Amino acid sequence: MLKLGTYNTLKILRDTEPGLFLGNEEGDEVLLPNKYVPEVFEIGEELNVFVYLDSKERIVSTTIDPLARVNSFAFLKCTNVSEIGAFLNWGLEKDLFVPFKEQATKMRVGNWYLVYVYLDDDTNRLVASSKTNSFLDNSLVLLSSYDKVDLILSHPSPHGWNAIVNEKYLGLIYRDEIFQKLTVGDRLTGYVKKVRPDGKIDLTLQRHGFRSIEPNAENVLRELEANGGFIALNDKSDPKDIEEVFQMSKKSFKKAIGSLYKSRKITIEKDGIQLV
Question: What are the CA-CA distances from residue 144 to residues 28, 176, 209 (Å)?
Fold first, then answer.
């Protein structure tokens, strides 16, 4: 069976006037239009193609890498709004449809939206939804404190930023854990601080405790090298100045330079830190 909205590895069956016909072991076939046909190919050769529905609702394949795939989140731009819904640019000839009922807020042309792409069971069409929380489930969180996770920023809240965790769960980065500019759709590496009994996940963008020393020390070294070996900041500096340069708290900065000092990679001067 051909899988819509994702990549399929298919064999070249025959060369025809409109393009190549590709197929799988189950006997399913799909057209790869001429504009996507490679310059050199052989019948029987396998191609990895993306399969979706074209503007006439026909199953078709392409070698273009789209900006999203089925059962995943993406940050996409609205290109059109019609009487039935909105359409997003996902890098293919046919835009991705978002029904009005799947819009968290009314979409407007030119704006960007975080959406989840899925296959509608009733119509067998690929559609998107900006009601992203509906596709997350914190009833059983298989994560522990200190786990490294992939984050997609969802939306700000009075307490910080909501983030999609490993494309499965919803978590929160508290304001006092943020030392850099964040925007909706950003993809970041984060760490689990705590999984609460009710399934809520507290997140941080830095490893906490002793685990944060190594990566933060590396960041300090990189900044020193980029600035000629000296930066006019030390353990007595204003926390805001440290956050602006290193995107970390003063506490983390002090641990980092303490580690670098002990390993004799830097010296701590009255007016800053110096690379040895």
Answer: 43, 21, 15
